[in-house]
Design goal:
Strand order of the largest sheet: 11-6-1-13-12
Largest sheet: 5 strands, mixed
Oligomer: single chain
Mean pLDDT: 85
Low-confidence stretches: 392-402
Structural class: alpha+beta
């Protein structure tokens, strides 16, 4: 069973509107706050209020922060998210969103993405909007995100760089390849944060996909408009997997990057895999191969989100010394999972739980084993037993993780 979220962007989308729609659809705001508190900064608050937009009941999320004018680099925000020990998909989705922003801002200002300084999208409110939205998706168990065609406004909008055309250049770049249309409304219907969430998270655009609808919600924009409900709608649903193809819906787009290496040591290749994962790859691995003239070699592979492809490819080339990297675009169907932590001998151990499977984070279990002197197998057994005691898996049908 796959859980789907479809964003209906008839009045555009902004970070607070996306988060508001998911809270309106059932995401627990207290649990969203609990995940947000893992971020290494304070001085923020998130509140949700029931409102109406053109007679439609909606939720208005308000984020208040003390440093809305602070300018942060992409690297700074990336480090904050990685330090927060967020659940895997929350971390990956949040990093992909800011990576999409950095890539676009880098092109617009002719800078490397690592040198990009975020203005509006670097403030606490924008960070909370992005990580909060990704947290709400995880709390609702969303596996795949889709969106409708995206509405934009017209006229001019004020930014940290002065007056800009509406839609803003960053919005236009982020929505490249997405179906869009303009409305005769002098309001910034779609913001860079909202467009980045779509660019990083959506697996496709179009009408409501085939699914069984289980919930819906509306996230309100800041102002009431006379001729348009200023809100973003999310529709939640489920789709059955079929035995023939395994899935009834398109998967998440991913890029497989590869390089052949015949002059690197095992230590160098192991380090390359570790750095690729740190750079945001979903997975990375090494395969023994035989090259021309019978030379033994290795193929280093990394699977990543399209928004991170350039970043991960650069790391792959730099760490392996390869003169080139090849890439293939494909799809993946990750199974629904959640991440939690249990205590073993007073030390937290992270665990991934999916239908029929409980997987202990090896590094955490190894840390407990070193501290306590217990065998690693005993630590894993105790952690798995504690998870099953708290919340036994729904069904035991096997299956591994999608890379």
């Amino acid at each position: 069973m796959t859980t789907i979220a479809w964003f209906h962007c008839f009045a555009g989308i902004a970070g607070d509107m996306a988060l508001g729609s998911l809270v309106d659809a059932g995401a627990d705001l207290d649990e969203v706050r609990a995940l947000l508190r893992r971020l290494p900064f304070s001085g923020w608050a998130v509140e949700a209020h029931p409102v109406q937009r053109s007679g439609i009941a909606a939720t208005k999320v308000e984020v208040r922060g003390e440093d809305s004018a602070v300018v942060r680099t992409h690297g700074h925000i990336q480090a904050m998210i990685e330090e927060a020990r967020l659940p895997g998909r929350v971390r990956e989705r949040s990093l992909a969103t800011f990576a999409a922003l950095a890539e676009v801002e880098g092109r617009l200002h002719r800078r490397h993405p690592s040198q990009v300084h975020f203005h509006e999208v670097g403030g606490i409110d924008a960070i909370v909007d992005v990580v909060g939205t990704c947290s709400a998706l995880e709390l609702l168990g969303v596996d795949i995100v889709y969106a409708s065609a995206v509405a934009t406004g017209t006229g001019m909008v004020r930014s940290a760089h002065g007056w800009l055309p509406n839609p803003a250049p960053a919005v236009v770049e982020l929505l490249r390849g997405a179906p869009t249309y303009g409305r005769e409304v002098s309001v910034e219907l779609t913001t860079p944060t909202g467009a980045a969430l779509l660019a990083a998270l959506t697996s496709g655009y179009g009408p409501l996909p085939p699914m069984t609808v289980v919930a819906t919600g509306f996230g309100a924009g800041s102002r009431e408009m006379s001729d348009l409900p200023n809100a973003t709608q999310v529709v939640m649903g489920t789709a059955e997997e079929t035995p023939a193809s395994g899935h009834t819906t398109p998967g998440q787009p991913v890029v497989l990057l590869e390089a052949n290496v015949d002059d690197a040591t095992g230590e160098t290749l192991a380090h390359a895999v570790a750095v690729l994962l740190e750079a945001g790859a979903h997975d990375a691995w090494i395969t023994p191969i035989v090259m021309k003239k019978g030379r033994p070699a290795y193929m280093v592979s990394a699977l990543c989100d399209p928004a991170l492809a350039a970043q991960v490819a650069g790391v792959l080339a730099a760490e392996t010394g390869s003169l080139g990297v090849r890439g293939t675009t494909m799809e993946r169907w990750p199974r629904s999972r959640r991440e939690l932590a249990v205590d073993v001998e007073g030390v937290p151990v992270r665990i991934k739980v999916s239908p029929g499977r409980v997987k202990v984070e090896h590094d955490d279990a190894a840390r407990v084993a070193r501290r306590t002197g217990l065998p690693l197998r005993e630590v894993v057994f105790r952690a798995e037993a504690e998870v099953r005691r708290q919340a036994p898996p729904e069904r035991r049908d096997g299956g591994g993780e999608a890379g």
